[in-house]
Design goal:
Chain lengths: 259, 384
């Protein structure tokens, strides 16, 4: 069974992020870049499935040159090869444009499963897996807390407010996983050394037959009109409970339109 | 003419190794470190976790269960383990095999490698090194623990002290006297700790390194198979001496990396801590203090790394290693002092990270060859 895991390089989840004033895109130079933490669960799940069912695990990413580090990390965890879509024209792509690129790139690969982390920690949209599945015409099994594959059927569990939904589909299918699904392994030191020798293919927009107007800032359906820095934190107000604490809390919450 | 400088400590692989070490510290060390400091030892599960990341085996060949890589890779792990918020105690307790195993690996006996090296690098067992005795210190040549040949066995009698991981170890590489007095009569022998006659006399409570257990060990008629002799009979001193350079350089790395961590913490604190209406970092006296700390760290790091590079390339750096240790340790002592000073009352509290480093650093001028011994050694090497 061949699996493709889509991963994204993001600014360190805990760092303060900034936008470039010139084009309102993320300032990637101001913070350390890491693999989107939620994608590590996707890589781990692919490796677990590979251990049980064989086949190859391919890592797919799109992003600047530096995003290749994220492919290397997944290869050091044990994945077999990488595909990196890198093109200046990608800059500023939103979720819709991203899904177009990923779907095209997936079209160049052979796979039974595509696995995504449920969202990226920078954009937080959680829609790319669904968009990619739609473009590919593949069934999508989202928010998986458990994935099982038997023959050509993939079954997932999705946690709901009431219990678990069990959802199944025929492969090829697109799966997105949540962080409860597993504990990602470390990219071991041996894995780091081995990753150097694993193949990474780069693809451009031309290779994928995509025009500059279909991706990047020009091809995105959403645009950032303006943004402002978060205002500095104000000192909080302290309410002393003089027998009317409950009333004061209620008044505060009502004032904030919480109740 | 322009030349491009490639930092050998920041190659793509070493940056990935650094990131891996940081991830390990953040995920498996920092959340538990305060508890381990109180427990007085590291849990065995930590060894398994470090092995899973391949960190225990860095610098050890794959044939004996290691991860490959060389001494410079070990330097990267040591630096980042501290700079990501680990501690000298974690380094001492988790990487005790860094001093316990190299002689066994170098001796090249495949049976010993399978029995004593592989299980440790795989995180399934703990190894320790026992050299120092209660009435000796850096004077290795006058050791008194004896191993007497009896048929296919050696019988070991004696006492060892200040043994790192001695209370948890599954086996101990012990320096024993098999021959006459002086340098020439010493051998290395692996003693499993379930051998009858082996006892942990007591755990030693220390100023720092609280999460690293340290013990006094007694050997009373311990019968050990002669197959556990490491390397040639009466060749122990040379075997020990061959590891001295690496041990001293490693302590130097530990010293400047601890100092770097304290500088990072002090810098962050100086930027957020306001006194008399302004952040500490805006005061000239504090800014200059921070620059001085940076100078000490950077000079120590540069000198030590240079010696490490030359050692890795096969050059003899006995004097440089000794001086790197003294330089980096002295720098670390000043930097941890200033870090605690900058943190003020906060820095004097137990569980303040700088307070722990302040205590942890003190051993570095004593262990692995005391500062005075290093200076005398350098004097001799320099022909003074």
């Amino acid at each position: 069974m061949n699996i493709v895991v889509c991963v994204k390089q993001v600014p360190d989840s805990w760092a303060e992020k900034k936008l470039n004033p010139s084009d309102s895109t993320l300032d990637r130079d101001s913070v350390d870049a890491v693999m989107n933490e939620l994608d590590e669960y996707a890589v781990e799940e692919a490796l677990v499935l590979q251990e049980a069912h064989g086949g190859e695990v391919t890592i797919l990413t799109m992003g600047p040159e530096k995003a290749g580090e994220t492919i290397r990390k997944a290869l050091s965890m044990g994945a077999d090869k990488g595909v990196h879509v890198v093109d200046a024209g990608l800059h500023g792509s939103d979720a819709v444009a991203t899904s177009a690129v990923l779907a095209k790139a997936l079209g160049t690969l052979e796979w039974d499963l595509v696995i995504f982390g449920i969202e990226s920690t920078d954009a937080r949209m959680s829609v790319v897996p669904a968009m990619v599945a739609e473009r590919l015409g593949s069934p999508q099994l989202s928010f998986a807390t458990k994935v099982d594959v038997a023959d050509s059927t993939v079954t997932i569990q999705r946690q709901t407010e009431y219990g678990f939904d069990t959802v199944e589909a025929k492969t090829p299918a697109v799966v997105s996983v949540v962080e409860k699904i597993n504990e990602p392994r470390y990219p071991s030191f041996k894995g780091i050394m081995a990753a150097k020798k694993k193949p990474v293919t780069t693809l451009t927009l031309a290779d994928l037959g995509l025009g500059a107007d279909e991706v990047g800032l020009a091809g995105s359906w959403s645009a950032v009109d303006e943004f402002a820095a978060r205002p500095p934190r104000q000192a909080g107000s302290v309410v002393k409970d003089e027998g009317d604490g409950g009333v004061k809390i209620a008044e505060y919450l009502a004032g904030q339109k919480f109740i | 003419m322009t030349t491009t400088w490639t930092d050998p400590f920041a190659t793509e692989e070493r940056r990935a190794l650094r990131a891996l070490t940081r991830e390990f510290v953040e995920r498996d060390v920092r959340p538990h470190l305060d508890q381990w400091e109180r427990d007085g030892e590291l849990p065995r599960t930590l060894h398994a976790q470090a092995a899973a990341a391949g960190l225990l085996g860095v610098g050890f060949p794959e044939e004996v269960g290691g991860s490959g890589g060389d001494f410079l890779d070990s330097v990267v792990v040591t630096e980042e383990l501290l700079q990501a918020g680990g501690s000298g105690g974690v380094l001492a307790g988790l990487f005790t095999h860094g001093i316990a195993l190299p002689h066994i690996v170098a001796a090249g006996d495949p049976d010993q490698a399978e029995r004593f090296v592989r299980p440790v690098l795989e995180g399934r067992a703990i190894a320790a090194l026992a050299v120092t005795e209660p009435d000796g210190g850096s004077d290795v040549a006058s050791l008194r623990t004896r191993a007497v040949r009896a048929g296919d066995d050696f019988v070991v009698d004696g006492t060892k002290t200040y043994i790192t991981s001695g209370a948890r170890a599954d086996w101990v590489t012990v320096a024993v006297r098999t021959g006459g007095p002086g340098f020439g009569g010493l051998s290395l022998l692996v003693v499993p700790t379930d051998t009858p006659g082996f006892t942990v006399v007591r755990r030693l409570e220390k100023m720092g390194w609280h999460c690293s257990d340290t013990a006094e060990l007694a050997f009373t008629g311990c019968r050990v198979p002669a197959a556990n002799l490491v390397g040639p009979l009466d060749g122990g001193f040379v075997q020990l001496a061959q590891q001295f350079v690496v041990e001293r350089l490693s302590i130097a790395v530990q010293a400047y990396a601890t100092a770097q961590r304290c500088l990072d913490l002090a810098l962050e604190w100086a930027r957020v801590r306001e006194t008399f209406g302004r952040p500490l970092a805006t005061r000239q006296v504090i800014r200059h203090q921070l620059v001085e700390m940076h100078r000490l760290v950077d000079v120590s790091r540069t000198y030590t790394r240079q010696a490490a590079l030359r050692h890795a390339a096969g050059e003899e750096v006995v004097a440089e290693a000794a001086l790197a240790k003294n330089t980096a340790v002295a720098a670390a002592e000043q930097v941890v002092y200033q870090a605690v000073q900058l943190f003020g009352g906060q820095g004097y509290l137990r569980d303040a990270e700088v307070e722990r480093h302040y205590r942890d650093v003190r051993i570095l001028a004593i262990g692995g060859g005391a500062t005075e011994i290093m200076t005398e050694l350098a004097a001799r090497r320099l022909g003074l």
